[in-house]
Amino acid sequence: MSDKLNKYMQASLDQGPLLRTAFIGQAMPRNKLTPHDWPSLNQWLYSVGITGDDIERHFLYSALVGYFPGAVNGSHIAPSKEDIDDERQRLKESLMAFGPEVVVPVGKLSILSCLNESGGPLSKYIGNWYMANPYGLYGRELPIVPLPHPSGASTWVYIDGHRELLNTALLLLCVVVNGKIPTEGRH
């Protein structure tokens, strides 16, 4: 699949403006200097030819909950179902105001919520794309390209085979945000 996606990606990079894309994590960071202050995610995007200007002009970074839920022993606390439910209206308003054409749930909690799934390993979702009504909030289906959480604390990407899934997901993302719908990887 990678050779075909690489060809799509190379053709896509020469196209016009990127589609409006919302990246939705699980919670906002403790400190956020700019609206697109997610250095580890940005490094992944740069690796497939997406520029800082592209990020600023076409992407929204948001989260299931619009605040930092705290930390224990240096690890961020995952928002509870109640926290997420309390923040649904804010997330809906953010999505509606931005008007995304593509949604990228970042991390397992966001992926499961976005796709209305109850569970499963990340490897079931990463490297695939979906057509779904994101978070059951948008009123219509959009392309969904899940990514794992890019935190340095996450070991998922270092497990055998997972780097290839991440690379496939990033190539799929590059293709989809350039307005091309791949024939592969859809679920």
UniProtKB/TrEMBL annotation:
Residues 39-156 form the Uracil-DNA glycosylase-like domain. SUPFAM superfamilies: Uracil-DNA glycosylase-like. Pfam families: UDG. This is Uracil-DNA glycosylase-like domain-containing protein. It comes from marine sediment metagenome.
